[in-house]
């Protein structure tokens, strides 16, 4: 069980809460004082606040407003810069499902407590908004806000007619049920086993005109850097970071990675095994992710991509990429999800 004092969230969450309080004509300063959040933290775009403090802030806000759906109000004050590069990355995704997957991948940039996932079946796909085991747990209102933000993002991407098939919330039914009905505009379930927003698969897989692989690649690089800084104690993340630096020119060996991390080869192997992974698995994952990013950005040739991900020739890279994805690199290079060259 994690302690909420050890996990953090972006201070930009608190800025959005402050904006919603100002709009509601409620004095925000005493509530922030009660939660132990210093005003100067709100001025720093890189600042992070202990999860325990933001949870206390949400509790104070609900008590002051009497609105247990206040998270939905806060969602309206989240803009394209609130979550750094994450918002831009989702807005230039190839499909709504792609945006869901990127939101899950980078959710820990927003909060260390994130436990989100994407699932689906033949006709539907969904995003589960969970969290790590932590005491005290995140406020219901924080999860409500994140759900509302993603539904708003879906409408921005697909169109105003894009509505969830249904929404399930782990929280108890709110007193302010009307607010939920107005935001989600779909069948609602409360006190469920999880918080899940469900979309029609056909709509979620429809190619988006706003897709921009080059812009997405730039923002994903920023997010990857942020994630590495958030997960610096995670050996697998450290291994992938070292692999990324060593791949160009084929200098990436298990021994070289071990030396870069100041470990013996045996210690590296043992520690990775303890995390139920291996050097080969992390190498394959890093190569595939980097290759996919470079190819879709369309800024370098397939031969150059092969070099950047550690292959000695383009034909070896092409065989590996075909094995990873079922596609040839030339079929992906510089194309968006709709098959149009970027």
TrEMBL record:
InterPro entries: AraC-type_N, Homeodomain-like_sf, HTH_AraC, Tscrpt_reg_AraC-type_HTH. This is AraC family transcriptional regulator. The lineage of its organism: Bacteria, Pseudomonadati, Pseudomonadota, Gammaproteobacteria, Chromatiales. PROSITE patterns: HTH_ARAC_FAMILY_2. Residues 237-335 form the HTH araC/xylS-type domain. Keywords: DNA-binding, Transcription, Transcription regulation. GO terms for molecular function: DNA-binding transcription factor activity; transcription cis-regulatory region binding. PANTHER family: HTH-TYPE TRANSCRIPTIONAL REGULATOR GADX (PTHR47894), HTH-TYPE TRANSCRIPTIONAL REGULATOR VQSM (PTHR47894:SF1). The keyword Cell membrane does not apply. It holds the Pfam family HTH_18. It comes from Abyssibacter profundi. GO terms for cellular component: cytosol.
């Amino acid at each position: 069980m994690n302690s909420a004092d050890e996990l953090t969230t972006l201070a930009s969450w608190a800025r959005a809460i402050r904006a919603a309080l100002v709009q509601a004509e409620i004095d925000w300063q005493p509530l922030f004082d009660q939660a132990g959040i210093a005003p100067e933290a709100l001025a720093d775009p890189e600042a992070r606040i202990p999860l325990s403090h933001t949870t206390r802030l949400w509790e104070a806000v609900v008590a002051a407003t009497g609105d247990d759906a206040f998270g939905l109000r806060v969602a309206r004050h989240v803009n394209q810069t609130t979550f750094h590069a994450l918002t831009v990355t989702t807005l230039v995704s190839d499909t709504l499902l792609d945006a869901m997957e990127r939101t899950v991948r980078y959710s820990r940039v927003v909060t260390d407590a994130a436990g989100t996932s994407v699932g689906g079946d033949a006709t539907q796909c969904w995003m589960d908004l969970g969290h790590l085991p932590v005491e005290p747990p995140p406020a219901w209102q924080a999860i409500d806000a994140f759900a509302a933000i993603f539904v708003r993002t879906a409408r921005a991407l697909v169109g105003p007619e894009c509505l969830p098939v249904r929404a399930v919330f782990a929280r108890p039914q709110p007193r302010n049920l009307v607010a939920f009905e107005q935001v989600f505009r779909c069948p609602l379930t409360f006190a469920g086993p999880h918080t899940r927003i469900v979309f029609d698969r056909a709509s979620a897989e429809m190619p988006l005109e706003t897709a921009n692989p080059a812009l997405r690649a730039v923002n994903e690089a920023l997010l990857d850097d942020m994630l590495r800084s958030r997960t610096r104690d995670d050996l697998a993340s450290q291994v992938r970071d070292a692999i990324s630096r060593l791949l160009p020119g084929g200098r990436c060996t298990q021994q070289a990675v071990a030396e870069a991390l100041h470990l013996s080869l045996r210690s590296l192997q043992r520690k990775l095994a303890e995390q139920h992974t291996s050097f080969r698995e992390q190498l394959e994952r890093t190569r595939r992710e980097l290759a996919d990013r470079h190819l879709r950005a369309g800024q370098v040739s397939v031969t150059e991509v092969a070099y950047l991900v550690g292959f000695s020739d383009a034909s070896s890279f092409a065989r590996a990429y075909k094995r990873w994805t079922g596609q040839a690199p030339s079929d992906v290079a510089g194309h968006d999800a709709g098959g149009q060259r970027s």
